[in-house]
Input
Amino acid sequence: MFGMFRKQALKQNWVQVKPYVIFATMVFFAGVIVGAAAQGPVDWLDKQLLNLAEMSKEANEASNPQQAMFTTILWNNINASLMSMFMGFMAGIMPVATLVLNGMIMGYLFGGIADQGVNIWPIILKGILPHGLLEIPAILFACGYGVQLGITLIRGVFGALFGRTEPWAKLKVAIRGIIPAVLLVVLLLVGAAVIESTLTYWLVQT
Output
């Protein structure tokens, strides 16, 4: 069992997943650009922002806002990230959709703020960057891993149908690396939630 945590196993897993993480990063920032370029109100994006505002309001109205924020942020991020990772088995569709949606929401939010003549950089530096340095890579890695699972499964199926040698080799590597990958994502998201409910919370209040 502990073989999956050996340096060679982790290195092999990273080498295989790296192109998918790069792909996930490109998809996410493409979503940011599309969201920022949106002209006028977009109902479904406005609805997503409203849901986020409601969660933030509920946390702030709790008896211990920072603890409520930590719990809410951590649960939502872990749930979304791990769902995207494991649902990647379905041809990698869900992780790609998650990347596009999150990217568009971020781009739409900051694009709308910029359209009002507000300087978005202090907001990004104080409200996104501190926890985003851990949260965004965690989401990109989880979604990239999900895409990898979907693509290697499809390749395995077609490889088996066409009689290729060891068609499931890459899928086996990906599956063996799931537990270390999940632990990495969870640790990054815990760190991000701690920072967002403390440092980011304090910076936004000042």
Observations:
- The mean pLDDT is 90.
- DSSP finds eight helices and no strands in the chain.
